[in-house]
Design a protein that fits this description.
This protein is of the alpha+beta class. Helices cover 40% and strands 15% of the residues. The strands form 5 sheets. Strands 5-4-9 form a 3-stranded antiparallel sheet. It has a 3-stranded antiparallel sheet with strand order 6-7-8, with no helix packed on it. The protein has a two-stranded antiparallel sheet with strand order 1-2. A hairpin with a 5-residue loop joins strand 7 and strand 8. The C terminus is likely disordered.
Length: 447
């Protein structure tokens, strides 16, 4: 798309050419109109998204699912053998230094805050504190900062030049505090090509969240109005020519029925009839609530089953949705690993690529994997084909005894180590027929 401003041709989507300048992320151009600015990104609006998260409920639980599955399994520090051989070092000293640093700053807490902020207020940023003297280029701490208080200053190509804190935590204007890109650990859950800021999961489901709130309030009001027993007291209902009750008689009759509850009995005399109202209560409450919750879950990108909302009449579709979610988590994990390896760990070791952070599988005990593995075992498959001994040792953290000679039978097919691939592999296996035989008879120890 090309536009002309002041007799000058500009391109919003194409890369730099002789006759055009890319301004897709140029937010701070002075003196000319900037058609790419985002007027919706204000402190008040971002803080509103944070308040929605802080109120808890299904929205907050959905946001928390991403860091739970991404970093909840822990991490490992791996030494690249090729880099180690090239540098002539075993890398153990550097690995120990990195491990001590991650423990000192509480890696899990820092990354949790970055992940939550990226999903709530578009970006998660943390200030990298460097040492002094000989350690001037070595990180000594990583401190999360409120991203909504910062403006990201970019050049014509969209590259971030500085992170400027313009507001305090309450939104009040303060003297600008600028941080260089090298001093900021910047994490985005989802990026966009037209902005230096990320994409908020709450922002893209804002309307569905509001609808869910309205439905919840309507259900609550309906239950309060129609969910408690009410009574209709009729006087002179069968005698049309009966003399109307006086005001005093009305007042006396009202007082007699005040304060009645479900345990009370009614004893009346004369032409008085007592009828219950709202005996059915409020119907289809669960269905109304689930409709909006499923839309919120879909907009935020996680299976509704993970927050206790069942979708569909079978579990097959749920397994597929959870499998897709786990693959999404693998992408998130790779982003986190790259973020820390390039911006923190390489600076600590001073030897790029020697030590690498590796996040473990999202959920080793995922019920889909466990269910398919148990189903495979029950068909009579060799246990070593489903879960090899070495794989089990690695999963459980059990070291192999020195001198122990473990023989592992060779199998024509071995399951992949990745949990999502393992689930897919097991689903493709053909069950072995067990005619007239107890399927548990082939399992070790009579399992």
């Amino acid at each position: 798309m090309r536009i002309t401003i002041g007799k000058r041709t500009l391109s919003l989507l194409e890369g730099p050419t002789l006759a055009a300048i890319t301004r897709a992320k140029a937010w701070d151009i002075k003196g000319i109109t900037d058609l790419t600015q985002d007027p919706d990104r204000t402190f008040r609006r971002m803080r509103g998204f944070r308040n929605i998260y802080l109120q808890g409920g299904y929205v907050a639980e959905g946001i928390d699912l991403f860091p739970i599955y991404a970093i909840g399994g822990g991490y490992e520090l791996e030494i690249d053998e090729k880099v180690s051989e090239k540098l002539g070092t075993d890398g153990e000293t550097e690995k120990q230094t990195v491990e001590e640093f991650l423990q000192k700053i509480n890696f899990f807490d820092v990354q949790w805050q970055l992940s939550v902020d990226a999903a709530v207020v578009r970006d998660g940023i943390a200030e990298i504190v460097y040492g002094k003297g000989q350690a001037a280029g070595v990180p000594v701490n990583v401190i999360p900062r409120p991203a909504e208080s910062f403006d990201f200053v970019t050049d014509l190509t969209g590259a971030i030049l500085s992170y400027d804190q313009m507001r305090d935590n309450r939104g009040n204007a303060i003297q600008k505090i600028s941080l260089e890109p090298a001093s900021v650990l910047h994490y985005q859950f989802l990026s966009r090509p037209d902005s230096p800021y990320g994409i908020s999961l709450i922002e893209r489901t804002e309307h569905d969240i509001k609808r869910d709130t309205q439905v919840s309030e309507a259900i609550t009001a309906g239950i309060c109005l129609h969910g408690t027993p009410k009574w209709h007291i009729k006087a002179n209902s069968t005698q049309a020519d009966r003399v109307p009750l006086t005001d005093t008689e009305y007042s006396n009759l009202e007082k007699q029925f005040e304060g009645f509850n479900a345990k009370d009995q009614f004893l009346t005399e004369g032409d008085i009839v007592v009828q219950p109202l709202d005996t059915a209560g409020v119907n289809n409450v669960q269905q109304y609530s689930d409709v909006t919750l499923i839309r919120v879950a879909a907009g935020m990108g996680f299976p509704a089953e993970l927050i206790g909302v069942r979708q569909g009449s079978t579990d097959a579709t749920a397994v597929s949705r959870i499998g897709a979610f786990l693959k999404k988590i693998k992408i998130v994990q790779r982003d986190i690993e790259s973020l820390w390896n390039l911006n923190i760990i390489d600076k600590i070791t001073g030897k790029p690529g020697l030590v690498k952070l590796k996040l473990k599988d999202a959920s080793p005990d995922d019920f889909a994997q466990m269910a398919t593995a148990m189903a495979a075992l029950r068909t009579g498959m060799n246990p070593d084909a489903v879960a090899p001994a070495e794989w089990c040792r690695e999963r459980l953290g059990i070291p192999q005894d020195i001198g122990e000679d473990v023989e592992i039978p060779e199998q024509p097919q071995q399951p992949p180590m990745d949990q999502t691939q393992l689930r897919d592999w097991l689903m493709k296996q053909v069950p072995q027929e067990q005619s007239g035989q107890n399927v548990s008879g082939n399992l070790p120890n009579g399992v």
